[in-house]
Amino acid sequence: MSRVRAIELLLVELPLVRPFRTSFGEVSDKRCVLVRLETDRGEGWGECVADAQPDFSGEFNDGAWLVLRDLLAPGMFRAGDIDIGSAEGSFAPVRGNPMAKAAILDAFVDAELRAEGRSLASWLGAERTRVECGVSIGIAPTTETLLEQVAGYLAEGYRRIKLKIEPGTDVERVRAVRGAHPDILLSVDANAAYTLAEADVFRSMDDLDLLMIEQPLHHEDLLRHAELQAALRTDLCLDESIRSAADAAAALDLGSCRIINIKQGRVGGVLEAKRIHDLCRERAVPVWCGGMLETGVGRALNLGLAAMPGFTLPGDTSASARYFEEDLTAPFELAADGTMEVPTKAGIGVTPLPERLDACVTRRELVSA
Ligand code: OSB
Ligand code: MG
After folding, report:
1. In ligand 1, which atom is closest to the CA atom of 240?
2. Which residue numbers are catalytic?
């Protein structure tokens, strides 16, 4: 039980080691909102996974800033003494905005667990001490560049390669990578770039032994995903379409996918992520931990989540060096066997380095009760 006294919002900007291109756009810098939350028992950190633009979902940094400052933080202040089980209740009057909600809720969970000296992974009931890591590769300028990047990441030890795809280059690129690496775990992610009229693209990939095809169709279209899934051998995985445990249940009932990408920020925080994990585990549906190019703050949280038993596939939990020259926290490193250590310290287990915040923060605002 704690009382939230204040939150500080920090906009950070970190250059990416290489631009990241998806079917919906390209980014060269990671820009996101961090939440530092103070309770009467200590502080906690959360990272908002929204981008500068409302492209992956309807949320974006400036909007999340307002929602956090003017609605979610005041709601938490008004709620008085709360604990992890009751914290989400303070958001009840705010519809949607799961990424903003996740940032402040996760910061509160971190503060509570730090105050109790308990790690997030242990609180979630995770037993694994290391998780298997994959890497998500942006759309490359040429097939040759893509093949070089794939070979590089495999040499580092990554256990699953995910290729971003878009109409035009899709089948040729995926065939080239599969041809060069017949036995690796390989998946593709379309970020909703296709319509059912283009289903032939996915039929052409159906003999490439892909681990999954992620979010081929529109994010609001569970029915057509079910139609496509019925026409393919390859498992579909949904990302953008799953905004809650209710969405996950609907997608599974409809047969829209056979695998779910859990991104805690997309579903309103670590508690809803755990609900999706539990639901999928009950139905023996594999899940894996997605990523949003998080800094070390979000990465630490993802690793705790990915340590839960239902996360049976390698996640997009890559090393700090895959994203940044210098992270905001001590760097997360990939072991040669393609695994990463799950943080064991209290809460998410990391804190941004003060000198890195000095270098990366472009805007900050303190909101007190
Ligand atoms: O669709 O999974 C996605 C990054 C930003 C937005 C959407 C996605 C991604 C990734 C990168 O695939 C995953 C990561 O390494 O964080
Ligand atoms: Mg995705």
Report:
1. 1
2. 164, 263
pTM of structure: 0.98
* C-alpha of residue 125 to centroid of ligand 1, in Å: 26
| Domains of the chain, CATH where assigned | 2-117+353-368 (3.30.390.10), 122-341 (3.20.20.120)
Closest residue CA from atom 8 of ligand 1 = 292
Across residues 217-243, what is the average pLDDT? 98
Q: Using a 6 Å cutoff on CB, does residue 338 contact ligand 1?
A: no
Ligand 2 centroid distance, CA of 107 (Å)? 24
Reported as a single tens digit per residue, the pLDDT across 119-161 is 999 999 998 999 999 999 999 999 999 999 999 999 999 999 9
Q: Where are the beta strands (DSSP E) in the chain?
A: 2-22, 25-39, 42-47, 81-82, 130-132, 134-137, 160-164, 185-189, 212-214, 236-238, 259-262, 287-289, 339-341, 361-368
